[in-house]
Amino acid sequence: MNLNFSQIVSSIPFILGGLGLTLEIVIVSILLGLVLAIVLAFMKISRSKLLIFIADFYTSIFRGTPMVLQLMIIYFGLPQIIGFDIHQFPAAVLAFGLNSGAYVSEIIRAGIQAVDKGQKEAATALGIPYRKMMAKIILPQAIKNILPALMNEFISLTKESAVVTVIGASDLMRRAYLVGGDLYSYMEPLIFVAGVYYVLVMILTLLGKMLEGRLRTND
Known about the structure:
Blueprint lengths: L11 H5 L2 H26 L4 H15 L3 H16 L5 H27 L2 H9 L4 H31 L11 H12 L3 H32 L1
Helix pairs in contact: 2-3, 2-5, 3-5, 4-5, 5-7, 6-7, 7-9, 8-9
């Protein structure tokens, strides 16, 4: 069977109309996940066994269950408990943000612990408060060291965002599926969307390398 991409040309604007939603979900989820990850990372390196247990338990839940299951629990299951429906966008952001926070927290924790202990001791000797030391000295260095790992996580999140199609969100994947249903030919629109995701990933990869190179130059 020959592929005929000419039949989807008129549908390309409709498919690309889902790009905005895809990017919005990814960007907001990354921001939510990063904030949550920083909090969890500090809990994991704290001296409180309770905080460490809570952070580790949280991480194990989100790392031990499928992303699509988490999304479906939030979108389909949570309304049963709270008594009202959740819109597709906040459901997706919540699921991806909570999931990303679990993974990124481990990355940040490792980055913080990799910073030379001598710098912590010097800051303490100078009387710098713990919070200020972490915010101004330790965390910036940790972020710089773990930037490649963070970018890989953000790239993974960009690709995994396609699962929002299971809750009917009108993203790239959903629109490609709808076009395929109208044309009774799914391969062409799906290949087109695969190309769009590939371009997005390549752009993120390039931006990550540029940022990493700039940080090294500033060292």
